[in-house]
Amino acid sequence: xxxxxxxxxxxCCAQTPGASPEPxxxxxxxxxxQVPGTVAGALRARGEWNxxxxxxxxxxxxxxxxxxxxxxxxxxxxxxxxxxTLAEVWLNGECVLNADNMYRSYQVxxxxxxxxxxxxxxxxxSVTADLKKRRPRPRWKTNxxxxxxxxxxxxxxxxRIPGWSPPVPAIGxxxxxxxxxxxxxxxxxxxxxxxxxxxxxxxxxxxxxxVQKIVSARLHVGGHETALHIQExxxxxxxxxxxxxxxxxxxxxxxxxxxxxxxxxxxSGTHEFPLEAIGFRRIEASxxxxxxxxxxxERVHCRGACWTTHDIFHPGGTGESLMHELMLARDAGMNMLxxxxxxxxxxxxxxxxxxxxxxxxxxxxxxxxxxxxxEDAAFNANITTEATQxxxxxxxxxCVAVYCxxxxxxxxxxxxxxxxxxxxxxxFGEQLPALCGQHHPGTVYVPSSPSGGVLPxxxxxxxxxxxxxxxxxxxxxxxxxxDVKFTSECLGFSNVPEPEAIDEIMGGLMPVMHxxxxxxxxxxxxxxxxxxxxxxxxxxREVFGVDPVTLRCFDMPRYLELSRVAxxxxxxxxxxxxxxxxxxNAGALVWFYQDLWPAAGWGIVDSSGAPKAAYYxxxxxxxxxxxxxxxxxxxxxxxxLSNESADSVEGFLEVQLLxxxxxxxACHEIALKVGPRALETRSVDEILGSFYDVNYAYRFGPPxxxxxxxxxxxxxxxxxxxxxxxxxxxxxxxxxxxxxLLQAVAEALxxxxxxxxxxxxxxxxSVRLSAKGHxxxxxxxxxxxxxxxxxIFTPRTGGAGMLRAYVEALNMMGEVPVELSPSPPxxx
Length: 828
Hints:
Jelly Rolls, 33% strand, 5 domains, six-stranded antiparallel β-sheet, Immunoglobulin-like
């Protein structure tokens, strides 16, 4: 078997639309370009990209070219995994392919077209020029994009959404381009795996092309194998795997994956074709009155975020940065990521890592908000091929649990007042679910996000997009009234990043919120007279009881400190309700995971992969063994202990009433055992045994305590989870830290890792740890008086060097350096 033929370095050149009908006519300066990659990525690499005045790359034609030598005598297939978008492929001056769908892959047999020396060129025609063509008008218009004709093009919307996307559209060979020359080749591979009772069943089908006669073909899965049926150029068969270990989301179990391969024997030898590892799991959904997922018979509370892309200039999505970002998601307790219809289908590497890490994927098809012309025969055929290819690819990954037809099309139509029969067309209502059932059985199909109920965006029925806490400025007290069953996007805030990212945004200028460099990157809904910074300010007042405008005018550093914490506090309180015993919520995905550029964007992780405060605040609410606290008004406070694991947890539950800085007003604990897959609710008043007005609901006098602190311990007195409730909203005024009150010591663990142990004689609000080149496992936490807390730091890169860390807190003036212990490394 021959590997892919090596290409010479690719180069790129811009042309006036239509000026160069063929490669020989191209005139202009060529420059180096990465493939896979985009025009924007190539320009950035040359230092020619400026977010403040970006080039209009949609307005030009773009030519790519490379060369290669004549390969071996085996048949050769030119494979193009993704071309964005209106592409012509030329080989040695001959056009061998016209493509018009960014999300389709193409294969061209070029065996008879090769020479001793070959030139491969790809032209990407101007999107702007194509959008000027006369086409039928839509039944409705959307503010999501500026040009309604984008509904006709199967191209990415990222970069073309003015309200919140950087102006970086995908143009170019964004996925791999390769020339495969092999004596035996598989194509149109279709493989599914389902559970039949307790047994796994794998079905396989593919076309095979071989120079020599095929003698036999066999499918191997783990330690099992079966012969495949050969009929002309198609091989197919079914393999039953008795009682396989099951694949689980990481919050509920292990990720059993079974190696798989196809072996084809010809007259000259045996050829192995590795397949994606197989995971057997059973996915089921209940739709009434809301939406909930079951995995292997167990109800799963789905939590996580809406995935964006780790680099909008290179949306192909591979490499170490992808691993870093998915590991962050897994470590935060996320068990689901949604790829929304405004994004792009992800790379094979993304789904493979989600398989290995135990992260479920909610997969939208790439349709959003617009009235797509599905009744047009050519367009329908195009998207049918697109969907068929993507489903066949994704069916090989157990992580993919839910397919969704689109993002916000039903909501868009309903909010514009259109009749119900116009909300859902035949493609999303009939054709697409049939394709999903055919090509990826064992998954759940949802026609639109949101959908269900009298109106698709109602919160109590179906799937909703919940921005009650967020854009609609509702109170936390309305959460139970909203009764959100499943929200596939929610809690959008302008999340302030760390100071290093702010420096990058401002280019070294003083950070001021009204500066154009800052405001350009604050997300907004197109046409709205407010942005999501206004939303954050509203909740900053609710959390800390301060006026954000006054604070911003006279103390910008303090405004930024509180603004980092406030959104995550609101998200954490919301998830505390949704994970409580009083809620029927079955899932919530934050909008969104990672910023698309350095910004105070919606992301809980910034564009460089550094977590923001909200990431850590949510991480403490997303764990498998979780303690949450809810305010029940005149009934006091309730504690909710969730154990999603398959094992019981024995330990202790402690409740302490704290008056700052370090006075324990009351402290009681009980022994308890929480069973497997169980959720228990306890009253704080019951544990304390006396009336303390724990949530300051009766207000017979000034509160005698500032905070209620609940701690769930293991039987070995290890902290499993903590929960805090503050009696009043207030700014925790910063006080000087006397020498010796705070101890911060780092101990080297080897491989660039450190354990930092903190201990303070007084309560600290929202402790912030910073260390250039290192990442803390926890951050923005409250530190109890005289209770040591250890935090592991890991290097972000191989050359992070010695740890230089600092400690800050909202109620502490200045920062305290972390001392490095001279002791030898401790075993981990």
